[in-house]
Amino acid sequence: MTAVHTAGVERTTARAALGVPGVAELHPSLRQSLAEAATRVRRTLGSVAPSLEAGIHAERAPRTGAWHVEARCVLDEDRRALDTARDVRESVRSAVDAYATRHGIPGPVTVVVTVTRTTGHRPSHQTGTTAP
Fold it and tell me: What superkingdom does the record give (predicted)?
């Protein structure tokens, strides 16, 4: 397994999670937030949009080949959080399984969905804008 495969699994996870109705955005972990803050301090030109994979962590067990994926989500309050989290888990599991099979790195997929908060509006995924 390479970092390329892990990054691909994280991108696949992010797209699958954000495609589920009721997911407003992904919420970065403290580690990701600190890394992003450090990157911003080092940059002198403009601000950078948060990466699509913020709020996602994936790793593969070297001995078993199993994938463990975590998605930290902010959910719309208009939909029951339990239903949305279950849909995210299933969508991510299916997407990662398909990605891993296509790239010759199949293995069992475990998905953990953490709901960090609920919100009354869904932000746009474009830099600096929010949708009502």
Answer: Bacteria
